[in-house]
Fold this sequence. Notes:
Blueprint: H1 2-32, H2 44-68, H3 73-98, H4 108-130, E1 141-143, H5 147-182, H6 193-210, H7 212-215, H8 221-242, H9 250-276, E2 284-286
Helix pairs in contact: 1-2, 1-4, 2-8, 3-4, 3-6, 3-8, 5-6, 5-9, 8-9
Amino acid sequence: MMKRTLGFMFRVVVTVIVYVIAVMIAGGILSSLGATLPAVSDEMNILFAKLLLSRVVIGVTFCIIVSFMELSRLKLLFAALAILFLNLASVILEGAYFVPGVITKQMIFPLLVQQLIISIIMSGVIALLFGVTNKKNIQDSSPSHSLIGWVWRIAASMVCYIIFYYLFGKVNFALFTSSYYMDNMGGLGIPSLIDIVKIESVRSLLIVLSVIFIAISSIDVRKRAIVTGLTVFLIGGVMPLVQQLSTLPTALVIASVIEILFQNFLTGVVLVMLIEYKGQNKSRATICG
Length: 289
């Protein structure tokens, strides 16, 4: 037990160090090309602390994933890339509409490129650190749904996310966050209803696809639902908000974390349940990875 714990701690530390290096590499590449990125107002020690803490979240998340399921390095490579890039892409898109004072629409493409570079580097490192090399120990299969079956399950999960987003977002706005948005605190803004529908429709697809590799793994369905929900909550919710600790009021960050917990975690659970729907008694087709 102690050896396993120390092993996880070592991998988390390596993950944090590599992520910091990846951020510097991606930022340097884009800066040299003249790309416009959000201005950094924090002091160096605060910036580094937030960067460190948010990257610890990544390491802990993948420790949780590999504690419950054994994934080959190839499958973990694709899973990590999807989890990191698609979740962060969804956060960038939302930020351009809800925090226009910090992320302008002109920054969307450079930020997406930056996160893609970081995600590719990190996915490779995570696959090497956490992936299983002995494929004989891996029970790797996916539900044998038809194309239409996959489409409606993904679409239904997207609809559920939008419903969760509306319900919990409306409650949070009414109880806690409305004054912050009305005062445009920390660059916050309220987009039009049409913009909200458009952006959240895209984000719902990104969020669902980000954890599809985890959702189709072969572990017990309850454990898989919990791990899938936690993954999309931690990477898509907690990690981005950690970087806003000194920018936004603490009360707003806490309220947003609770809101995203219900939105993202429940979406992950629903996705797993829909994937298993009427498929538990069917044969499961082996997939590569």
